[in-house]
Amino acid sequence: MARRKIIAGNWKMNMTPSEAKALVETLKDLVNNPEVDVVYCVPAIDIVPVVEAVKGTNVEVGAENMYIEEKGAYTGEIAPAMIVDAGAKYVIIGHSERREYFKETDEFLNKKVLKAFEHGLTPILCCGESLEQREAGVTLDWIRLQIKSDLQNVTAEQAASMVIAYEPIWAIGTGKTATTEQAEEVCKAIRETICEIYDEATAESIRIQYGGSMNAKNCDELLAQPDIDGGLIGGASLKPDFGRIVNYVK
Ligand code: 13P
């Protein structure tokens, strides 16, 4: 069976609650495509208003991060149960910005992935290489290592239901998109890694997104690749362009 495409916006640290509601309203008619899963991953404080604002539409909501503990003295953190109770279904885990600025390690991210599943949240697990790594020719080795480390003790059934986003760090927010061939090569390698860890059926079922300067112009070609099952969109998710990506041309 063909995998259903999943187009997710990662709003990052943008949109106050009132701006968030206005953006959902602006995008409402533009993101209406029943053939595609559409997700808005939003700042924690926007989850409640955005869940409310997307009611009755095809859009689901995700968090951009969460903590690994159930509750307690972790000032400033967001518990998985809070995200679930607020009505979100997805959570981004291991975005390169969190790895870099907040020093999140693969060991820690593995705990987050397991915790997300414990609470019935679908992880969107991010991986990606730096420019130095690409130039040194170690991209595929690095990505395999990230995936294997982050998926320790994740069952095949869980892996089959999750989303992995390949986001080359050098392509994020730079306007520099990976070429279609570069993006497909890595997404294919991720699927092969899943096959190696689990089996063919899990690899066929898991959805792999490309992220990094995906926009209204380059989305059709990227989304036409056999191993690219969607996009994780930063900048363009805050604009009407996001509707064009959701309605990519086959
Ligand atoms: P841009 O689309 O702004 O390059 O961001 C990509 C990204 O980091 C999505 O998670």
Q: Between the first and last Cα atoms, what is the distance in angstroms?
A: 17 Å
| CATH fold-level name | TIM Barrel
Task: Assess the beta-strand content as a share of residues.
Answer: 15-25%
Q: Return the average pLDDT rounded to an integer.
A: 97
User: What is the CATH homology-level superfamily?
Assistant: Aldolase class I
Q: Give me the count of strands.
A: 8
Features:
TIM Barrel; 250 residues; binds 1,3-dihydroxyacetonephosphate; alpha/beta
Provide structural commentary.
The protein is of the alpha/beta class and 250 residues long. The two termini are 17 Å apart. The longest helix is centred in the last third of the chain and has 18 residues. An 8-stranded parallel barrel has the order 1-2-3-4-5-6-7-8, surrounded by 4 helices. The chain has one domain: TIM Barrel (Alpha-Beta Barrel). Helix content is 41%, strand content 16%. The protein binds 1,3-dihydroxyacetonephosphate. The site of 1,3-dihydroxyacetonephosphate (13P) has 14 residues, from β8.
